[in-house]
Amino acid sequence: MIKKLLLLLLIFNDTISFGETIKTDILVIGGSASGTAAAIQGARSKLKTMLIEQGPWLGGSLTSGGMCVVEGNRNLPTGIWGEFRQRVREFYGKPPGFDTAYNAPLRFEPYTGAAILKKITDTVKNLTVKLNSPFISIKKDGTGWEVIATIEGRTTTIKAKVVIDATETGDVAASAGETYVYGFDGKKETGETLATESSTRMQDLSWIAILKDYGPQADKTVTKPEGYDAARYACLKTKNVKQMLSIGRLPNDKYMINWTGCGNEFPVTAADLKPENREAFYAKARLHTLGLIYYLQTELGYKNLGLDEGFTTPDHLPYTPYLREAGRATKGLVRLTLDDIYKPYDRESKLYRTAIAVGDADPGQHYTGEPVPLVDYQPFPAYGIPLGAIVLKDLDNLLVTEKAMSVTHLVNACTMYPSVQMAVGQGAGATAAFCAFFKTTTKNLNVRIIQGELLDFKAWIMPFADIRPTDPYFRAIQQVGASGLLKGVQKADGNSAKVMFQPDSLVATAEVEPVLKEIYTRAFLWFNREKPGKVFTIGNLLSFISETTLTDPRTLETGMQKAWKAQYKFNSDFDLKRPVTRREFAILANRYFNPFARTVDITGRMVN
Q1: Which InterPro entries does its entry note (predicted)?
Q2: Which of 42, 371, 579, 591 has the most crowded CB, counting CB atoms within 10 A?
């Protein structure tokens, strides 16, 4: 009898271990930079959210991959990325050599970054985070999804209304049936003026190393790695290694080693990233980096630099590689191309109007081995990432981030950057929250509601570098910019180009007239009647406000004169004949006729 009871008890326990089911509104798979931000935003939008990550840390490339000198989004501290950046700076305070200038590159120790992200997630209501929890499978469940994962050693079923694939390699969407393209796109396929011939060649990955200076007398030489070949790293003898170390300098006498050329870049193919090949391939990449460290210590005399022990791996290298490229979704609702970035206002589609994230990371070109045709990028402007790039056409309520987004090879070279992906993740979290809250699917997205939610949480949808988030009219300018009524101006700065709003510049009639006519039927009558000059005046603006809002002109003028400085805090005098500035125009346009309220579709076209 006792044996039978014990047997029944064992069966019952097995049923619990292998039969647990969790229900959630949003499930984020992958604790990458984008995944962490997506989970935070989903929960802050008051939807029940769960994040599962197969490794021990949050942050993906930023932390587990060791990419902890971050230059991307230096001028765009958007939302959760800006929050993370601020917390890193507060943690380190002002130690010698730690630059806290507004747009300085962010530098931190990987485990510190992971700890800060964990601390943020621990304080977010509605959010459950499970580390060391690998994804197993996914299948459709009505309008939502059923996911199997290993959580705390038990096989667990998770039923979610919306799933976000925030893995570095797009494993979840691939399991659900999404197909990927790898490497270069041909010009005929994308229409990009800078595109080359189609090729499966992908950007190299890097297995980064974090070194610590243990003092001049220390000898931290690693064991000679298997297959070590000094010739692979010989070009370093012609390099300024001290300068290379300085570029990767971190707090507390540490260095991030992410070197091009004969450094620790390692060629990768689509076949290498297949789940069945990944472990063996990653082992080779790790050995290549260990060989670089051994060469640095034995051939170049840096025995005092040893691997930092912040990573608990046997070799003390990061948990994951820094992947620059993997498979890109072939069936996104839209595909972001290079021409959408260089000429956002001149395209038939107006994807900038649908942006759910911003970036200013420059595109990289990292290819070792046989040469590939490098792209002659012109000064690269800051950009917006459209909503449709994270939405899959044939897989409702499954969103993708990281390298799986629907972008071209040339665009992935900048959007893959971890700080940009943190912004993308926040956009994905808001999108998932929209679907879960309104009990709908990704076939019925409302761009403006999603963007409005992001603005509520201090995220940027327009990459205007000259309008700080502390500006009291930051949101108004973002919204008017997203309508296309006032366009950003690209200003080259070396290899990059900032996008400026130029708030003190004057409003050209030729800029605003087409968009006003596109949005407001009465605008045709007004322009025919008023015939404003080349530059819009304050009087023109008030007249247009009166026309669209049906407000008595005299009443509007009297009220505006009183509110000009008292309410709107304008520095200039109220003068109907004076040309209106872009700042004044944006604030009043947003207040009175609100072009942002006009519905746009997934391509950015106005919807009647």
Answers
A1: FAD/NAD-bd_sf, HdrA-like
A2: 42
